[in-house]
Write a structure and sequence with these properties.
Length: 132
Amino acid sequence: MVRIGLAVRPSAIAAVQEITQGGAESVLECVGSEPAMATAIGIARPGGVSGYVDVPHGSSHNLNLGRLFMQNITLRGGAAPARAYIPELLADTVAGKLNASAVLDLTVDLSGVPKGYAAMDSREVIKVMVRP
């Protein structure tokens, strides 16, 4: 799994634009930080779409409205409809039918819940699985 730090990397934006010959047609930002949003907008091609999932964290997002407007890049997003998938995915995950280690990358017991929240807050892990 690749974890991107909380800084915009112009070299990464340039690399994606070069590889895709002008930017990606569709981009999905799933981190929720301002640098991740800036990167997603930066790698979208003119006329492309940059989407985001769930609630951005941080105090403010300074979107590059000039790039969005002048390059006709669409920005769309909203809350992930996770509750619609929880019953099936939770049962499959607990039964070991689904490998969720790419997302549920820390397992704690009930006494470890504060540690799990702290790890998510500091971006050390993505999501925590709590087992009794």
